[in-house]
Design a protein that fits this description.
The chain contains 9 helices and 11 strands. The chain is about 30% helix and about 25% strand.
Length: about 300
């Protein structure tokens, strides 16, 4: 079933309302256009035979077929509709959930569970653990996943300079030889904080490929000693020019000194001052990263909500 223009607009309008934008200068028309494109692209991609087959082969869930991975549309009364489909948290086969994207507001566990009851028979083979939806504020949910955090670039640039900011330098990463060093650092982090292993995951090499190609994947040095890595990507935020942060990684030796905040500030001043916004998603359990983003003026504008089944 293809999405028609009216359906797409209704989904995009509801999706835009899952962002808290009162403090940001966003062009609503541009934002709606970008959201419409994202919804349509995702819907078509997830319903393509190649993608359905690839997901079937990757997750290897017993007794499933490729069409079980399709995105579908549930029609409710009063022209309310929901796009729904199976997902896996962190691409982990052991963490299946059902994602809901409605053309109206889902504001509570009760709302999500009521919708899920109408389609639950379609997902029995997956044994999903959660239902997922997004909201502009914290609502009645069992737990939160990603938090979208945004600030204007100007606001971050105008933050007071760190006294030793001049000692921070960057080195462009030009190939994938960095990845073993980066992954080793995450392995150490997970040894120190095993409870975060499934929540604060290492980025795949492919997920940072755009950062590499754009020249925004860099080693970080302090007084000529490598202390970390930062990965940004020029990626619009709701139709406005922006940099998206995939990673700000600080080595164990240098953690706890407030360096992530300084590194992010200097990176933005040096490489992204022409963009309107700075944004990224941070796992709700990753308090150090949340505090770093908050200290640089980024604020939560969207919550990924999960309901236990």
């Amino acid at each position: 079933m293809e999405l028609n223009a009216a359906e797409l607009k209704s989904f995009a309008t509801a999706e835009l309302n899952t962002y808290l934008l009162s403090s940001l200068s966003i062009d609503n028309n541009k934002a709606l256009k970008e959201i419409e494109e994202e919804i349509l692209d995702e819907y078509r991609d997830l319903n393509s035979e190649d993608t359905k087959r690839a997901r079937l082969d990757y997750f290897k869930v017993n007794d499933t077929k490729s069409d079980d991975y399709a995105e579908k549309i549930l029609e409710l009364e009063d022209n309310k509709k929901v796009i729904y489909g199976i997902r896996h948290k962190g691409a982990n086969p052991d963490l299946p959930f059902v994602q809901l994207k409605a053309n109206f507001s889902i504001t509570s566990k009760a709302d999500a569970l009521e919708i899920y009851q109408k389609v639950r028979h379609e997902f029995e083979v997956f044994k999903p653990l959660y239902i997922n939806f997004h909201n502009a504020i914290k609502v009645d949910a069992d737990f939160y996943g990603s938090i979208y955090m945004v600030a204007s670039t100007k606001e971050i640039i105008e933050c007071p300079n760190w006294s030793n900011e001049g000692k921070i330098t960057f080195e462009a990463i030009k190939d994938n030889s960095y990845y073993d060093w980066y992954k080793d650092g995450y392995d150490q982090f997970h040894l120190d904080a095993p409870d975060l292993k499934s929540k604060v995951t290492v980025n795949s090499c492919s997920s940072m490929e755009d950062s590499l190609e754009q020249g925004l994947l860099k080693f970080v040095y302090l007084n000529d000693e490598r202390i970390g890595l930062i990965a940004g990507e020029r990626s619009d935020f709701l139709g406005s020019s922006a940099v998206y942060f995939h990673e700000i990684f600080i080595s164990k030796k240098w953690k706890g000194r407030g360096l992530a905040k300084v590194v992010q500030q200097k990176f933005i001043k040096d490489f992204c001052s022409d963009l309107n916004f700075v944004w990224g998603t941070i796992d709700a359990h990753n308090l150090p990263s949340y505090k770093t983003a908050y200290s640089n003026g980024r604020r939560a504008v969207r919550y990924e909500c999960f309901v236990n089944i």
